[in-house]
Design goal:
By secondary structure, this protein is mainly alpha-helical. It has one domain. 61% of the residues lie in helices and 0% in strands. It is built from 4 helices and no strands. Helix 2 runs antiparallel to helix 3 and helix 2 crosses helix 4. The relative contact order is 0.16.
């Protein structure tokens, strides 16, 4: 298995091919539980949102669970970040 380092995953492209829902789901899991990164619900929501858009129903469920623990402004921030990522991709 190949290993790679990304210094800033928030801005990193995921290659030329469209990223699979599972990739976004794993990023959401990483931020929601603090796997190798600090826990960040805004980032987790963003990645779960992108996974849900691509059809991952587990991501949609987890996005709702995380949103229940976030303020309205945090949810709005996560939604803006997801839109910005989509526009940049």
């Amino acid at each position: 298995m190949a290993r790679f380092e990304i210094s800033d995953i928030e801005c990193a492209p995921l290659g030329n091919a469209p990223a699979a829902a599972d990739t976004f789901y794993e990023l959401g899991m990483m931020y929601s539980v603090g796997r190798n990164v600090p826990v960040d619900y805004v980032s987790a929501h963003k990645w779960f949102n992108l996974a849900a858009i691509r059809g991952n129903s587990d991501a949609a469920r987890l996005r709702r669970e995380i949103a229940a623990q976030m303020s309205e402004s945090e949810v709005a921030q996560a939604q803006r970040a997801a839109r910005a990522w989509l526009n940049a991709a």
